[in-house]
Fold:
Amino acid sequence: MQTTTDVAGVPTILSTPPALQRVLAELSIAYREVIDHAGLDPACKVQAVLLNDSVGELMVLFPQSQLLDLNRLADLIGRDMTAVPADRLAGLLAKHSLRTLPGLPTVTGSTCLYEEHLLHQPLLFISSGEPGLLLEVTPEDFKCLLSKASVGRFGEPLSAIRFSLRQAVDDGEAITRAVKAFTTRRIQQRLEATIELPPLAESVRKLIQFRANPDISIDEVTSVVETDPALAAQLLSWASSSYYAPKSKIRSVEDAISRVLGVDVVVNLALSLSLDKSLGLPKDHPQASMPYWQQSIYTAAVIEGLTRAMPRDQRPEVGMTYLAGLLHNFGYLLLAHVFPPHFSLICRHLEVNAHASHSEIEQHLLGISREQMGAWLMRFWGMPEELVTAVRFQHDPGYVGQDAPYPNLVCVALGLLRSRGMGHGSGAPLPDAIFERLGVTRDEGEAVVDKVLEAEALLREMAALFSRA
Structure:
């Protein structure tokens, strides 16, 4: 059987892979192919995750309306399990010509545990092994598929996870509560001191002042950049990269600014790198996640294109929106810096909850999100208010408050990239209203992403230069 869908305007024919067809036929399971879409009840959609430990592998099935809590699972089965390595999973799927993990333990040959709430649904939708295509089955047939599996209660309803998108004034207090909740009395004082970070370096303060001065000269920017030899070397590398393709050799910082990068780009790049250097990239990260700088560069590039597509009379400053893209995930660094042991736990939960947003996972585990922490620190450091707002409300498609274009642009860029498989979460479609507020059509947004992805190799090179800084 074949099902036709439409992806980015291009008709695509989806069908259940032969390996799954054989398994279902052998078990006499009736099913109907259904294109995945936002209207399907998440409580009926079966999320499959393959875990392992020193004992062996375990397939865990639960509804997409729930979060898989690894701590709760450990209490239930007496085993501390994490997601199987990405290359191991890819090998298992390739053996059966599958692209996603279906909720059938016979495919992996593993034992299986499933959430009891799945049996309470009138119909269930399991992955077909092909992205975007689900198989509709009855609860009775679902039980037949899992005749040797165990059942239990271990999921946390996503609806029970409360976090604020619209109240930023209490973020500092919320962060303090989270620190106190996750530290012992012995080390609590040290972490509270960590939150009260020292003032920014003088060079960074000057860069912030440059951002607000449209008449800043090349000589003034050069004098600040040259006080930091590492930063100066980095700017020379950027200006000499294939992305900018200079016609002749770049010999000095002034050369890089005047001939290739320009004052605005230099200030944005230098400011972004200087801020991120204050915390550093964490050594741990979720498997198969997009590297920090790669995500930042892609997001900034899409935002730049979206900004230029906006009507001139409502277009915000391109440099500031680009900087919002570079720094949108800054709270990720702060999260790792303030909660090192618990950051690892967040990474493991991101690996097994691909359907949930990182904000939901962080709120469940810590009671605070990276967006709240990042915005709080930027305000503490005296960063421009447009940037603070962009970081704080980047996942709220309904935000219409002060400086709304900045978080709206970040929200659209992240949503469009997520729809192309770049990013974490369910990838729910963006509402029409956010495009209307920006004065950009959905098709124009998709065209911007297409153009950015055409330069993917060059953007990866650019991200690599950031990572080596």
